[in-house]
Amino acid sequence: MKRYLTKFFVYLIIFSMFLSINTLAVDKEQNEDEHDMHEEKAVVHMDDKTLKEFGVKIKIAKSGWVNKKGQFPGEIRIHLDYLAHITPRFPGVVKKIYHHIGDTVKKGDLLATIESNDSLTPYKIASPISGTIIEKHLTLGESIEANSHAFEIADLNTVWVTFSVFQGKIGEIKQGQNASIQSSNGKDQINGTISYVSPIVDPQTRTQMGRIELSNKNQRWKPGMFVDVNVVYSSIKGKVVVPNTAIQKIDDKPFVFVRKGDAFEPHPVNLGASDEKYVIVKSGLKARTEYVSDGGFILKAEIQKNSMDDDHSH
After folding, report:
1. In 3D, which of 48, 85, 25 has the Cα closest to residue 263?
2. With contact defined as beta carbons under 8 Å apart, do 139 and 202 qualify?
3. Pairing state between β 253-260 and 248-250
4. Taking the model in full, what pTM does it have?
5. How far is CA 295 from the centre of its chain?
6. Which of 88, 195, 254, 277 is least enclosed, having the fewest CB within 10 Å?
7. Cβ contacts of 207 within 8 Å, gap of 6 or more
8. How far apart are CA 115 and CA 100, in angstroms?
9. Each residue's pLDDT tens digit in the chain (314 positions)?
10. Cβ-proximal residues to 182 (8 Å cutoff; 6+ apart), any chain
11. What is the C-alpha to C-alpha distance for residues 76 and 202, in angstroms, rounded to an integer?
């Protein structure tokens, strides 16, 4: 009797194991079916008319460049090659003043008449350059000394932009690199080229000084203004480069919509270097593939809607 009971329990254990294996197989099959249904739901169908209506744009994946940039604090300064300090030759008394701060003068224009203390003979001070009077340090009837600071005149049609390079970027910034200069209020922007980089680091600020010579014919760039200087110091080429607007995210994972006829499938992508406009796709999108470059959020919303509908149906 004991032998029969032992056989019975062995058969019972084998039968239980068989049921467990079948249950796992059924569960796996159901999970695969649900996964397949989810994948099918992830495909969005949209014809050309609808694409145009919603502003969805399509491009073909290709190689390109992303620019590595640095932004540096800068200031508009007077170009020292276009600045003149005017001083009287002899001590005397100011008898007449012809121009004042803010006046525009031409080279040779009279600025003041001084009566010499020694000979009591009047002599005239003239401007050595054309420009704008930015400083005046004499008044009518004042007694002035020889070589005193009388006038300062600057030609503001050309100015300097000086900017500070932090130690982390020293070596990246070089003469000849392109830069864009933007006013602190963001209203004005102009492009320039770095004309000089200081060979030393300022011992107080621990920064290196860079300089850009800027044409200023309309004189909207005023000396003393603070600006932001953006410098492109290197460029990286990628086999596939897409605009940042092409990248969508679900659960913080980036993907790109790939077009196959009127079907759009989200393809997970591995991203590389980027700038303010473009990003390198290291994997997940092949060259010469049609993809959604703009408006992908419309397709993303459709996927999320389908996913919610699917959840409610269970």
Report:
1. 48
2. no
3. antiparallel
4. 0.66
5. 23
6. 277
7. 164, 165, 166, 167, 201
8. 19
9. 445 444 444 444 444 444 444 444 434 444 444 343 344 447 899 999 999 999 999 999 999 999 988 899 999 999 999 999 999 999 999 999 999 999 999 999 999 999 999 999 999 999 999 999 999 999 999 999 998 999 999 999 999 999 999 998 898 999 999 999 999 888 899 999 999 999 999 999 999 999 999 999 999 999 999 999 999 888 899 999 999 999 999 888 999 999 998 899 999 999 999 998 999 999 999 999 999 999 999 999 988 886 665 555 55
10. 188, 189, 227, 228, 230
11. 19
Residue type, 222: K
Residue identified by tokens 């760039």 is 221
Residues 6+ apart with CB under 8 A from 208: 164, 165, 167, 170, 173, 197, 198, 200, 201, 202
The secondary structure of the chain as a DSSP string is -HHHHHHHHHHHHHHHHHHHHHHHHHHHHHHHHHHHHHHHHT-EE--HHHHHHHT-EEEE-EEEEEEEEEEEEEEEEE-GGGEEEE--SS-EEEEEE---TT-EE-TT-EEEEEEETTT--EEEEE-SSSEEEEEE---TT-EE-TT---EEEE-TTEEEEEEEEPGGGTTT--TT-EEEEEETTSS-EEEEEEEEEEEEE-TTT--EEEEEEEE-TT--S-TT-EEEEEEEEEEEEEEEEEEGGG-EEETTEEEEEEEETTEEEEEE-EEEEE-SSEEEEEES--TT-EEEEE-HHHHHHHHHHHHHHHHHH-
The single-letter code of the amino acid at 5 is L
Length of the chain, in residues: 314
